[in-house]
Each structure stands twice: as C-alpha cells, then as structure tokens.
Amino acid sequence: MPKTKTTKKSSSQPAAKSGAGAASYYQTLRSCYLFADADDATIADVTTKVTLEKFPAGSILLDFDKESDRVYIIEKGKVKVSRADAGGKELMLNVLDRGQVVGESRVLDGSKQSARVTCVEDTQLLSISKKDFTRLLEDDQKLALNLVKELSRRMRSSNENFMKRLEEQTHAIESRVVRMQKLIEASKSINSTIDLEKLLGLILGAASKGIGADRGTVYLVDDLKGELWSKVAAGDGMAEIRLPIGKGIAGHVAKTGEVINIPDAYADSRFNPEVDKSTGYRTRNMLCMPLKNKDGKIIGVFQLLNKAGGSFDESDVEFIEALSAHASVAVENARQAQELVQSERLSAVGRMASAIIHDIKNPMGTLRVYAQVMKKKSGNEEAAKLADEMIRQVDRFVNMAQEILDFSRGVSSTNMQDLDFAEVMNSVLDFIEKDLTKNNIQLIRKAAFSGMVKLDQDKMIRVFYNIASNARDAMPNGGSLTVVTAPNDGFVKVEFIDSGTGMPEEVKKRIFEPFVTHGKKHGTGLGMAIVKKVVDDHNGKIEIDSEMGKGTTIRIQIPAKT
C-alpha cells in the first residue's frame, strides 16, 4: 500500500452561533445534499455542532485502515478519494468539493477506513463528531434517506470509473499484445539477412509498420568519418546519404542520445523545411530516436515521419526502444560478417601474392641479371637506358606484389630517405608521360615546389603511378592530366587533376576501402587502399574532389623537410 503521511491540522475552531461565520456555515450546509430537505431550524442546530478545520494541500485527511471519530463537510477546497490495488498502486475513485460529505460510510458500518482522502488544494472543512452525526440520522429519516441516495450515486460513479479504467487497461493490454506480435515479426525479418544495405531497409520497414509511420530513414554511425550514413531509393537504384554527427535533428540525436518527438514539424524551429520543398513531401510530425547496442553505445538513428491518424506517443517510443535491441544485434552481426568476408578476401589476395612472388622470384631475378649483363656488354648508351628501364620494371613488378602481400597481412614498413622532391617527381612523370601519350592523354606539369622531402621513394612512386593509371582509365577517349606541386604550410602539395568521367558520390566516399573500384574491369580493388596506407605512413593527407562528367582531383600533402 502507498506510504501513509502524517497529517497535521493547521487550525481548528468551534463554529460560531451567529454572525458572518454562522452565515457561511449555514450556506455550506444548505448546499450539502444531506440537508437538501432540512428546515432552517435543523440546519441552525447543526451549525452549533460543527467545528471548522483547515488543511494544507497534500494533507491526508483519512487513511487506509485508520479509525476516525469525525465526519467532514467540505466548506472550501477539494479532496480526492482513492484506493490501493493489489500491487500497491493508488487509484483515484472520486473528487469531492464544497457541500459534500467525507467519512460518512464508517458511521453506517462501523468499519475502518477503506479509502484514502487527500486534500487536492488548501481545504476548509466543517467537522462533526460521529456521535452527533449518528444522532442526526436517527432523529431525521429524510437525512438518512438523502445519505443512502448519495452513497448509491457515488457507488454508480465509482463503478463507471472502474469500468472505464478496466476498458482502458484492456485496450492497453491488447495494444501491447499487438505491438509484441509486430516486434516478434520484426525480429524474424531483420535477422533474415547479413547484407547491411538490405538490413537497413528491413529495419526501416519494421519500425514504420510497428508505429504506423508513413516513411523515414535509418542511419548508421560511421565513427571514422564522424558521420551518419544511410541508403535511400534514387531512381532505379540506391543512393548513399551522409550528414555530420551533431548537424540537423538526426545528427543531434546521434551526438546526444536524446529522443526528439515533434508533433508539429512546421511549428518547431529545429525542423528544416528545405527537404520538403525539394522533394514535394509534407512532413507533419517526426520521431527521431537513437539506435543503441547492448552496451548503450549509439550506433545509429531512427528518423520516422508522419504517423497515421495523429502524432507519435510514448508507446511508439517504447516500441522503437524494444526494436532497437534487436536491430542493433542484427547490425553488429552484419558488420562482423562483412569484416569476415573482407578479411577472407584479403587473405585470399595475400595467398595469391605470396604464390606470385614465390613463382616469379627466380625468372624475375634471371631477367634482372640479364638486363645488367646487357647494359655492361652493349657499350651503347641507348641500350643501357633500355636495360635500366627493364631493371626498374622488374623491381616495380616484384615490389608491387610484395606490397599487396604486406597490405593483406597488415604489415607496414618504410625506407625513408631525404630526397630532392623535384627530381623524384620529374623521374616518375617522365615514366608516366610515356604511358599517357600512348593513350592520347596530355600530361601538363605545373611544378612550383623545390626542396628536400623525407620519402620512401619506391612506395611514393607507386602511389603516383597508381593515381595516374586510374586517371588514364577514366579518360578512355583521351584528355589531359595536370600535375601540380606547390608548398603549403610546411607541406608539399601534389595535385593530380584529370578531365575524365569523374565518380559518383557513393564511390568517392568509399574509394579508400579495400575492393572498391569504379569503371574498371581489371585490378584487385586494393590500389587506392594501398595509396591511402602509404600516404598515412608518410604522415601525410589525401583528399578527393570528383563530379560525374567533370573529372577528378586527387590532392596529396606530405610534410616538407625544413
């Protein structure tokens, strides 16, 4: 049962027999159903038997299983009558105000108090002793009948309240059962795939169906880039969308974990109507919630729009919270599966690279020795240059295979040397230019940096060659590749600017991930991932600007030697 509070009366005084006080009590008694048919003499007599008592708001006037020898008539203020259920929860039965009687049932059956009476606000009551109240009922049958009528009315009112609450509880239970069934169906659905992109669609469908949302988005957190990302339908395919964590409503939820329920989108300053203007969709209301894993970490965000028939409520929040537990497990499983597949692919590439190195070591070594012998015996400067080129190509081929093997194994080693950067660039560009010319591509050099840089020359040359090869593949009908070098706040900046086909946003965002390629039928898909690794090993930075049909710019910055 609810805990009983100790009640202290702020004041108590006998009712006056005449004057303003008596007149006030007379009016209160006259408004009371008990004295509806009483004559003035009876009411005047009762005013001499009552005492005025005052209670502050929150005071417990009568409590469960307590005895009292007073009956109260409300002179000013309100009280509520409540019961405790089997679980100890307090249920309100009635609210009584001026002119109504409190505590009269104990006089009739002589039992202890079965309900609690609490002052809703500061309250004044006329109290009469149990003895005087009993005598009034015995002496006047009309008073007794009025009391029976009032008790009957209150019983009907209590029954109606009880039935109303029972119906509400039944409806709530039925709604919970339906939600539970939807949650079970959703759990089965989202655990049916380990394809992350397909999984996002299943989670969104389960969330929308579960709470009656018209549409929405499920974002996942990209911790490395500090962004939220998702896939949305675009034309005949899917497009990736990204937004910074902390920006917009979804970004704010991802950062803080706050649940944002907006019943009227256009009346809320946090809502950005520009998306509606660009799509033609009209957002009425919105529910935005975090997707958390079992450790409470935010791994994504639900953004759901336009609940059918009204606004999102607390039960919708509860459903999404429950769904979040299942969805987060499915997302983690899908990510682990992807990592396992990628790890296995890298392992396979590593085994392939290992086999290549093993199989070609002897023939490549033989070719290298023959090239050195040809250089010594030819006595011809042109032949010597060709021999040197053969040696460089053999070394490049072996080193490329070794680099793929190292990348697949997670091995990282560099041979850093202080080198003249202009010489390194001229050497690699001379080599690249020959390949580009064969493909009708003009190489434009814009060198504005000269100085020493600490580099692993072999690895950095392969970085530049890889980037130039990708640019060549992006210009099948010819074009131009501009290479710019310039100092930039302690760094040397190198830009490769091609006039090729460009790449879509979703490819650009993932270009440094293993096995991501665009518009190529050959290659391992590891080239740009290795490029990024080499630049990182040099404590440098790499960025990509690209637009479909307008070419690509790859910008590398490497610390300059001061």
Our Rg estimate from Cα atoms comes to 42 Å
Rounded mean pLDDT is 79
CATH superfamily annotation of the largest domain: Jelly Rolls
State the separation between the terminal residues, measured CA to CA.
Answer: 79 Å
Largest sheet: 6 strands, antiparallel
The helix-and-strand class reads: alpha+beta
Q: Any low-confidence stretches, pLDDT <50, length ≥5?
A: 1-10, 13-20
The figure for the number of domains is: 3
Please tell me the CATH architecture of the largest domain by its name. Answer: Sandwich
Summarize the topology:
Elements (H helix, E strand, L loop, with lengths): L10 E4 L4 H13 L8 H8 L3 E5 L4 E3 L7 E7 L2 E6 L5 E7 L4 E2 L2 H5 L6 E4 L3 E7 H10 L1 H50 L5 H16 L1 E10 L4 E8 L2 E8 L3 H9 L3 E3 L11 H6 L6 E7 L5 E10 L6 H65 L2 H29 L7 E4 H18 L2 E7 L4 E4 L1 H17 L5 E10 L2 E8 L6 H6 L16 H11 L3 E7 L3 E9 L3
Parallel strand pairs: 17-19
Antiparallel strand pairs: 1-2, 2-9, 3-8, 4-7, 4-9, 5-6, 5-8, 10-11, 10-15, 11-12, 13-14, 14-15, 16-18, 19-20, 20-22, 21-22
